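Let us practice reading a record.
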Amino acid sequence: MAKQIQAIRGMNDCLPEQTPAWQQAEAVLRDTMNAYGYAEIRLPIMEVTGLFQRAIGEVTDVVEKEMYTFEDRSGDSLTLRPEGTAGCVRAGIEHGLLYNQERRMWYMGPMFRYERPQKGRYRQFHQFGVEVFGLHGPDIDAELIMLTARLWKALGVSEHVTLQLNSLGAPEERAAYRDALVAYLEQHRERLDEDCRRRMYTNPLRVLDSKNPEVQALLADAPVLSDYFGEQTRAHFAGLQALLTAAGIGFELNPRLVRGLDYYNLTVFEWVTESLGAQGTVCGGGRYDGLVEQLGGQATPAVGFAMGMERLVLLLETLQRVAPQPALADVYVVAAGEGAQAAGFALAERLRDQLPGLRVMSHCGGGNFKKQLKRADKSGAAIALILGEEEIARGEVTVKYLRGQGEQQTLALDEVIEQLKQKGI
């Protein structure tokens, strides 16, 4: 007996019973983006490896450990995208979308990282992302956060997420802070775990994000990034906070919030929850003003955010915010007897033509009248339309109400269509 082939570890199927929760979240996301005037961009799932090395940083965990990278038949090094921002910037530069222009874009699709699969975090995961180019001020940072707050409200989870806010300053301010932080960490090297010792020289700001309680205790006396801010950075961060306060959006200042990728500057933010255990970050983003130039374009201010769809769906399920699963059909066509199958298909197609949006399921696979009605009930349809030899001969249809809305009756086809219109099914 042949060995059964299974899905690759960390790359999961989304079964028909699970897709309604995804569709619910995706519909809210699309409606919200339309409400704010953002345009969708669709990007390839594979890029040249150098794009991510230059954008994310060669000494990040993503590039060092997590990317799915391979050589194609031409010997080129290609990578399945581990995140969406780099590809969006590449597309913007390549197609001339960014320089001296204002762009507000969003995307949604699969990303890939080789890491230990756990609840809400997979090797193939799906991400929703938003990127804005060409705007310098804190007002667009505030709009993105307001937009996410509206998403939580529409999804019914506002009371279960908290906004954390920080500023990483300008590159030169962060460089000066980096030197001071490394000097402090060197003095306490023996108290750092192995991971923090490795990051101390390659990406020291990530030490601030350590989950090790002993390291966090050590950091209580570490230099503070905000002490290195200049007047412009302070004004930008104060402006953002003022706009959020005016909009009634609460936030917590978190000086340890750094995000995981190298390209961020100034504003960084995360929406976190306590409802998912250790996987507490639902959405994160910030400003990355230097990335367009770093990838070969003209200097362009930029800000964005991303959220993992698996984690968002998990939050909806955990909080029981998923809408009840709809029936598969509104109307089920039962056809029994000589020539009934073709007549049943013709009836179903006419209904779809004249009643757009009506979900019509035609019985397939044969079976007697009783079996077909059982299938009709299982579909969740409100009405079964029955075609037998007698109905076909008279040009009529028997209407059977499956959910107790009325008595069974036999009508002319035009009358059936009119009745369905009136009932709004």
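A brief commentary: Residues 165 and 269 are 5 Å apart (CA to CA).
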